[in-house]
Write a structure and sequence with these properties.
Distance between the termini: 57 Å
Low-confidence stretches: 158-174
CATH topology of the largest domain: 434 Repressor (Amino-terminal Domain)
Helix content: 55-70%
CATH superfamily of the largest domain: lambda repressor-like DNA-binding domains
Strand content: under 5%
Number of helices: 8
Order of helices and strands: HHHHHHHH
Structural class: mainly alpha
CATH architecture of the largest domain: Orthogonal Bundle
Mean pLDDT: 81
């Protein structure tokens, strides 16, 4: 699928999500981006992307479109020659959904750098699904999470005033 095909598809999905019963027009997309994100692209530029006249996006443009459509920026490129989504297993499709969700969390929680960084670390692992299962097992094993935290990040949750940081349990007394 080309970048232009993907953009047309995203406009179609967005139109449906917004209750239009049809794809958003390029003009509607440009207007909505400016209104909702404070920045946008012109209808002419969107037309050039979709027609293939502009086969590559700048990093800024890719991030802006990804933010608007709530997709991973890496999605907004031409698929490699010979690529077909039909060859993906159901598990790989699920992994892609998990990665998309994680990358969305990275952006959504950007005001919390530690959380954003943790989500990014999981998303960047080759098998993020397996990493989440491992995290689940660590949390289910009594005392393991606290012990790992003490070993890997000693004192990381104590701020300059000696107060416990947010989001983590206090260190155990043992």
């Amino acid at each position: 699928m080309t970048l232009g095909d993907k953009l047309r598809s995203l406009r179609s999905v967005e139109g449906s999500l917004r209750g239009l019963g049809r794809p958003m027009t390029q003009f509607e997309l440009a207007t909505a981006m400016k209104r909702e994100l404070g920045r946008g692209l012109s209808q002419a530029y969107l037309s050039q992307i979709e027609s293939g006249a502009r086969p590559h996006l700048t990093h800024t443009t890719r991030k802006l479109l990804a933010r608007f459509f709530k997709v991973y920026p890496g999605f907004l490129v031409d698929d490699p020659e010979g690529y077909t989504s039909g060859l993906q297993s159901d598990l790989r499709a699920e992994d892609a959904k998990i990665d998309s969700w994680l990358f969305g969390g990275v952006e959504q929680f950007s005001a919390d750098p530690a959380l954003s960084e943790a989500l990014l670390s999981i998303a960047e692992v080759d098998d993020s699904r397996r990493a989440l299962f491992l995290l689940g097992e660590i949390l289910r094993t009594p005392g393991l999470a606290e012990r790992l935290h003490e070993v890997l990040r000693p004192g990381a949750d104590i701020d300059q005033d000696g107060q416990q940081g947010r989001g983590h349990p206090p260190p155990s007394a043992n």
